[in-house]
Every structure is written in structure tokens, then in C-alpha cells.
Design brief:
This protein is of the alpha/beta class and 412 residues long. The protein is 22% helix and 31% strand. The protein has nine helices and 25 strands. Helix 1 runs parallel beside helix 7.
């Protein structure tokens, strides 16, 4: 690799955001040189299936790659895998690589995502402790199961932890989920949804414990064998999966002076405070109208893809501010959760349907205005509820609570 190579657009990261940025640049007429590089050794692939279909071995890796490898060559997008940017010179427009090389860029799109947050307790470096962030992570989990691991402790009751727990139960593992907060999904959902998923996991045989803090991981021969809780008890573990969030991977940007306390701050066009540098996806903190104007990071495929399109349009001279409606999904057992909007700051909820029938929706409101919906096995409500979120609708609450009344009829 030439040490003084020049490229028109350098994309750092090959997840959903990075891949979509490259695709969108070509779709919007950009004909300059594009290089997409990543520390990962695999071509761009989907991340959500890692804790679902891929871990369950229901989808081989070939079915979760974002595009066939030949696609990138056909679009004149150069893939550089196993490469890492360690420093940025924003004035000189230079990205310095770990291997000693450097790339002079015209525009830089940072789609670096994040690294799994590590446990801050004794024993966190023992073998047998896994994350769910990359193909290599999940391959390690599957290898442990093939090697006889059956007692699994999942630390963290967010979506990743719960999805992994559901798959591991299907694989006949004994699963314990430990959540330090009073309920699972506490940061992303209301109490009713948390209670529903807690009950579902327990019905499927998961030993789910909330308000449970981990004191240490203990092992023999350098490998984890048990989890010691703060209250003194021990839980046997052949394997531990840690799902306690991510740390945004933005060190080269912040070291170069980019603004940001939680990731890197971006404006309405996803540009950072550094010249000609954009940031998208999990690591980009933006002001969201759907969060009352608060600056937030969103860890979702939707956010990464939509931000990528915004950046591509800006680079191609077609600026359009980011205003996409947030949406998310999660598959656990035979349950499909679909969320639209953000429930941040809600002061009321309305339940549509019966959780006992595993088909219902929870509508979140603030001052009578619809902020978000969580829909379980209820795609119709999800699709129609999106319109309520977009319109900031103020529906009649009695009608809203009636599952027989279509949500599309409640638009102002």
C-alpha cells in the first residue's frame, strides 16, 4: 500500500453504515475513487442476525453478507480488510494506518461503530468470556457449544443478551441472565414490555435475575468456571456472554479535536466539527426531533443506513437534513418485537391487545402526543402506528386502547 496514496472518499467501517455509504455514493452519481476499510477480516455483513439466525445456525454466513463480494468491484469500491485507522490529521486530510501507511482523503466517512463494553470486575480477562458484535465473536460461542459448554451466564438484559439467551435455550443450554437494573430492557422500553419479556424468558426456562450485580468472574486454568455475585453466591458457568452495551469507536476523531462526549457529535448533515469528516451509525451523536431535540446515539440498522444516505447526498451536492423516523426490531423465541419512534420522556402508555395472547402493542405518549410504539407480533399496528409518530398525532385515548380500531383511522 503506497504510503502517500490519495482517495476521493475514504470510508472507515464496513458495517451497515459504511456499506450503505458506498452504495449511496454510486447511486447518487459520485464517480470519484472510494475506499472502504475495516479492521474486520470479512466483507461487509449484517450484524443483527449474529444474535439470532446466525447463532442459531439457521443462516450460514454467506446469507448474511450485505452484497456479494464481486458487487464492490463492479461498483469500483475498493475493500481493504484487516486495516485500522489509528490517527487523523484533519488539516492535512490524512488518515494514518496501524501498518504504517497513510491515505490522503478528500472526504472521510467515519462508520466505526463501537466495541463491546467490557466488565469492570476481577476475572474479566478469563477465557470463555464472549461478546456478540462480530462474526468471530459468534463463531467463538458456537465453538464453545460444540465443545460441550452447556451452563451459560448472560450478563446484561438488553436486546443482545435476551436474543442470545433465546437462541441458547433452543440449543438446549442452561441459561442464566443477570441484569443489574430493576428490569430488563430498562433503557429502551417501558415497564409493561419489560415485564412481558421477563415472563416469556422464564417460561422458556431461563433463570432471569434482575437487580443482580456481578462481583467477579472466577476460573481454573485461565478459563471461567463461575460468576460470583455481589451478594456472595456463585453461578456455575462453562461460558459467559457479556451484553452491556458498546463504547463508540471514535478515538482517532476525538484525538484530532472532534466535538463529542458520547461518540462524536454531528450536525443535521452528519458532518463532524472537523473539516470534510462525517460520522454515521452507532458512533454518531445527533440532535433528534424524536427525542425532543436531545443529542443521542442510535444503535440501529435504520439509523446507520439513513445517515449514510444523508452523507452521500451531501457529498454529491444534494444536501438533505437527517430526519428519519427511528425503528428497531428484535426476535426472541416466536416473538417479533417491532418498535417505531422513541419513548424517551413519555408520561403515559396505552395498551392495545392482550399480552397473554402474545399479540399486543404499547403506545407511548407525552402530553397526549404519540411518541412511539412497541408492537409484539403485531405488524399491522407497527405499520399504521408509524404514521401516528410521524404526525405527532393526539388520538382519543379510549379509541387508541381498542385493538379493533385501526390506528390509521386515528390520525388527526
Amino acid at each position: 500500500m503506497p504510503s502517500s496514496e490519495k482517495v476521493d472518499v475514504l470510508i472507515v467501517g464496513t458495517g451497515h453504515g459504511g456499506a450503505q455509504a458506498a452504495v449511496s455514493l454510486r447511486q447518487h452519481g459520485f464517480d470519484g475513487s472510494v475506499v472502504m476499510l475495516s479492521r474486520d477480516s470479512e466483507p461487509p455483513y449484517e450484524r443483527p442476525p449474529l444474535s439470532k439466525d446466525y447463532l442459531a445456525r439457521e443462516k450460514p454466513f454467506e446469507r448474511i453478507i450485505i452484497r456479494p463480494v464481486q458487487f464492490w468491484a463492479d461498483k469500483a469500491v475498493e475493500l481493504r480488510l484487516g486495516a485500522e485507522v489509528i490517527a487523523i490529521d484533519p488539516q492535512g486530510h490524512v488518515a494514518h494506518l496501524r501498518d504504517g501507511g497513510s491515505i490522503i482523503y478528500g472526504k472521510l466517512i467515519w462508520a466505526g461503530g463501537g466495541e463491546p463494553r467490557r466488565l469492570a470486575c476481577p476475572g474479566a480477562d478469563l477465557a470463555g468470556i464472549h461478546s456478540v458484535r462480530s462474526r468471530a465473536d459468534v463463531d467463538g460461542i458456537m465453538a464453545a457449544i460444540d465443545g460441550g459448554a452447556r451452563d451459560v451466564v448472560v450478563i446484561g438484559g438488553g436486546y443482545i443478551g435476551l436474543e442470545a439467551a433465546a437462541v441458547l435455550r433452543k440449543l438446549d443450554c442452561h441459561v442464566t441472565v443477570l441484569e443489574a437494573l430493576p428490569r430488563v430492557l430498562a433503557r429502551v422500553a417501558g415497564e409493561d414490555l419489560s415485564a412481558f419479556f421477563q415472563e416469556e424468558h422464564r417460561l422458556h426456562g431461563v433463570d432471569l435475575r434482575v437487580e443482580t450485580a456481578v462481583a467477579a468472574l472466577e476460573g481454573e486454568g485461565g478459563k471461567v468456571t463461575c460468576v460470583r455475585l455481589a451478594e456472595g453466591t456463585h453461578i456455575s458457568a462453562d461460558m459467559v456472554i457479556v451484553g452491556i452495551g458498546i463504547v463508540p469507536s471514535v478515538e482517532p476523531l476525538t484525538a484530532a479535536g472532534a466535538d463529542g462526549q458520547n461518540g462524536v457529535d454531528v450536525d443535521a448533515f452528519c458532518q463532524t466539527s472537523l473539516p470534510d469528516i462525517y460520522a454515521i451509525g452507532d458512533c454518531a451523536a445527533h440532535e433528534s426531533a424524536f427525542a425532543g431535540g436531545a443529542r443521542i446515539r442510535l444503535e440501529s440498522v435504520q439509523n446507520a443506513n439513513d445517515m449514510a444516505t444523508v452523507v452521500a447526498k451531501a457529498i454529491c451536492g444534494q444536501p438533505q437534513a437527517y430526519d428519519a423516523v427511528p425503528w428497531f426490531w428484535s426476535n426472541q423465541y416466536d416473538l417479533r418485537l417491532q418498535t417505531v419512534g422513541l419513548s424517551i420522556g413519555h408520561d403515559a402508555t396505552v395498551l392495545r391487545g392482550d399480552p397473554a395472547e402474545s399479540k399486543f402493542s404499547i403506545v407511548y405518549l407525552k402530553d397526549g402526543c404519540v411518541l412511539a410504539l412497541d408492537c409484539v407480533n403485531n405488524t399491522k399496528d407497527y405499520v399504521q402506528g408509524r404514521k401516528l409518530v410521524e404526525a405527532r398525532a393526539r388520538p382519543d385515548l379510549a379509541q387508541l386502547a381498542d385493538p379493533e380500531i385501526p390506528l390509521k383511522t386515528l390520525l388527526d
